[in-house]
Amino acid sequence: MTAEIEIIRPDDWHLHLRDGAMLAAVAPVSAALFSRAIVMPNLVPPVRTLEDLRAYRGRIAAALPKASRFRPLMTLYLTETTDPAEIARGAASGDLTAVKLYPAGATTNSDAGVKDFSRVHAVLEKMQEAGVPLLVHGEVTDPEVDIFDREAVFIDRVLEPLRRDFPGLRVVMEHITTKEGAAYVGEADGNLAATITPQHLIINRTDIFKGGIRPHFYCLPIAKREDHRQALRKAATSGSAKFFLGTDSAPHLSALKECACGCAGIFNAPVAIPCVAQVFDEEGALDKLEAFTSTNGPGFYRLPVNEETITLRKVAPDEAIFCPVDAGEDGRVVVFRPDRPLEWSIVAA
Ligand SMILES: NC(=O)N[C@@H](CC(=O)O)C(=O)O
Ligand SMILES: [Zn+2]
Ligand SMILES: [Zn+2]
């Protein structure tokens, strides 16, 4: 069957662009399709100050094709020494879109993150006042908590108390992976929203071990049981304005994933929209696709919706293309590839 749909040009509300040769390799991939992206600050060293942020934005601009109109929306990495005045300045100048909270040790390049949440209260106060959203990697780091429970426990131990202390703070629970996450966000007031990744709509934890260990299905938070995947698909396709696409496209050199202690992170930028279109098609919810990819995100971030559109077409499965991305002199990055054929492709962007 051939079908075609036109949707408002998508934005990516959670993206890792990295730096150096990797930035040069991956920035054009996202910029070819997405209009804007929330750029994650977990570089080494992290993006801690407005000076770092502006310098990084300059390096991103330099990595884009000349005619590109892609707009990186910049974030700061929250540490226990972040200066509240820096938040106020960033909000006033318009350079700062959001602040990212990594519990220290929770994920890739999170060592400089927060250990003691009481030490960031003054910053959160300032963000609440200035209307700057807090983006959270929602997993506890307590080694006693099973890795598959860390998101649900984070809601009880960290997120719920934090939202009680700062009821006016706007929060995005990034890359939710559980039915608890979907329910918590779905029932909350309008100050809480969530991003969902393509991979968490497509794979469950069993897929990570299908036929052997599959490093390119490993990201954090790790994929959960099938009932959680189903809950995420329901949330994404529900039409609720609280859920929107954040690809969490997170490239690592393949040598650093295909080894004895592989990095967490899935590079999906080239296939994110075809993957999501397929999920919505399977759920009989193509009429809700545009809300998830293109209008719910701007709604939460109080930004205008994009004016341009893109066209997607359902094609014969073998027409789908999976190109490895060359990350320059250092090597290759493997693109996320679901085990079943991809049936949607982008025909006009
Ligand atoms: N998602 C991941 O598994 N990895 C991300 C970090 C993150 O988003 O947690 C990365 O930077 O590689
Ligand atoms: Zn994360
Ligand atoms: Zn991420």
How many helices?
11
Count of β-strands: 13
Mean of all residue-level pLDDT scores: 95
Read across the widest sheet, the strand sequence of neighbours is 2-3-4-5-6-7-8-9
End-to-end Cα distance: 22 Å
* Total number of domains: 1
Strand content: 15-25%
Helix and strand content put the structural class at alpha/beta
What is the fourth-level CATH superfamily?
Answer: Metal-dependent hydrolases
State the CATH topology. TIM Barrel
Q: Could you spell the SSE succession in H and E letters?
A: EEHEHEHEHEHEHEHHEHHHEEEE
Percent helix, as a range, is: 25-40%
User: Low-confidence segments, ≥5 residues, pLDDT <50?
Assistant: none
Radius of gyration: 19 Å
Question: What does the largest sheet look like?
Answer: 8 strands, parallel
Main CATH class: Alpha Beta
CATH architecture: Alpha-Beta Barrel
Overall shape:
globular
Chemical compounds bound to the protein: N-carbamoyl-L-aspartate, zinc ion
Protein model, in words:
The protein is α/β, with parallel strands linked by helices. The chain has a single domain (3-348), classed as Metal-dependent hydrolases (TIM Barrel, Alpha-Beta Barrel), CATH 3.20.20.140. Helix content is 33%, strand content 15%. It is built from 11 helices and 13 strands. The strands form 3 sheets. It has an 8-stranded parallel beta sheet with strand order 2-3-4-5-6-7-8-9. Strands 1-10-13 form a 3-stranded antiparallel beta sheet, covered by helices on one side. A two-stranded antiparallel ribbon has the order 11-12. Strand 5 (98-101), helix 4 (121-130) and strand 6 form a beta-alpha-beta unit. Helix 3 packs parallel to helix 4 (121-130). It starts with a strand and ends with a strand. The structure holds N-carbamoyl-L-aspartate (NCD) and zinc ion (2 copies). N-carbamoyl-L-aspartate binds next to loops. This is Dihydroorotase. Belongs to the metallo-dependent hydrolases superfamily. DHOase family. Class II DHOase subfamily. Keywords: Hydrolase, Metal-binding, Pyrimidine biosynthesis, Zinc. Residues 12-305 form the Amidohydrolase-related domain. It holds the Pfam family Amidohydro_1.
